TrEMBL record:
Record GO terms (molecular function): hydrolase activity
Residue span(s) of domain AB hydrolase-1: 3-214
Name of the protein described by the UniProt record: Alpha/beta fold hydrolase
Gene3D superfamilies, per database record: alpha/beta hydrolase (3.40.50.1820)
UniProt-listed InterPro entries: AB_hydrolase_1, AB_hydrolase_fold
Domain of life of the source: Bacteria
Keywords: Hydrolase
């Protein structure tokens, strides 16, 4: 099965370099997506890149979003509910209609640079060693304000019929269920087929637990 891989903020397709071989070994075709992230790139540009990958896939792909990019995976299900076989959200939740995509940190010169490790101290980054932190920060790509402040637009209720797997790294499935029950995650709360799986890692399991993550994704892939 084609498995489209979308990394979160500040990352490009190379974030999945250690996941790809393990998925290929299980007979899947992983497709890491590098999103438009230069200059005046917008959220619409990133959505278009994801949809182009969906349209180019062989058969109906599984779309994997990490962190903020869970929203991009969900937008793909909204725009192509008949084409997306499954959505996997890793360490994040889809934004609701009308919300900004990722307006989390201050913009500088029109972009949102990686803010350093301060905001991520604790469970998010506990399993990243110093070398991994340095490499992440050095490679981090500032995210254009046209992306971070872009408004999410969801229109097709058939997205709720697309099966969803929520991978819970730095939080537990029980916590995720509490957040959904409290109304904090309205999109997933309405999903008709939602599974949750625990993953003992920080927020970036493609870096710290790539083989384990690949196994979860391979097991989650529907029969093609």
């Amino acid at each position: 099965m084609d498995i489209l891989l979308i990394a979160g903020l500040w990352l490009d397709g190379s974030a999945w370099d250690d996941v790809v071989p393990a998925l290929e070994a299980r007979g899947h075709r992983p497709v890491p997506i590098t999103l438009p992230s230069q200059g005046a790139a917008t959220l619409d540009d990133q959505v278009a890149a994801v949809l182009a990958a969906v349209d180019a896939a062989s058969g109906n792909p599984m779309v994997v979003g990490h962190s903020a990019a869970c929203t991009l995976a969900w937008l793909a299900a909204d725009a192509r509910p008949e084409r997306v076989a499954k959505v996997v959200c890793i360490g994040g939740f889809p934004a609701a209609d009308g919300q900004p995509y990722a307006d989390f940190f201050e913009l500088k010169d029109g972009v949102m640079p990686f803010p350093g490790w301060g905001p991520f101290e604790g469970p998010d980054s506990a399993d990243l060693d110093d070398e991994a932190r340095r490499a992440f920060a050095a490679a981090a790509i500032p995210v254009p304000g046209g992306v971070t402040k872009g408004v999410v637009r969801l229109a097709d209720e058939r997205r709720f019929d697309v099966p969803v797997l929520l991978v819970c790294p730095e939080f537990t499935p029980a916590q995720a269920e509490e957040w959904m029950a409290a109304g904090d995650v309205p999109e997933l709360a309405k999903a008709g087929r939602l599974d949750l799986v625990d993953l003992d890692s920080g927020h970036w399991p493609m870096i710290t637990k790539p083989a384990v993550l690949a196994g979860l994704l391979a097991d989650a892939a529907p029969e093609s």
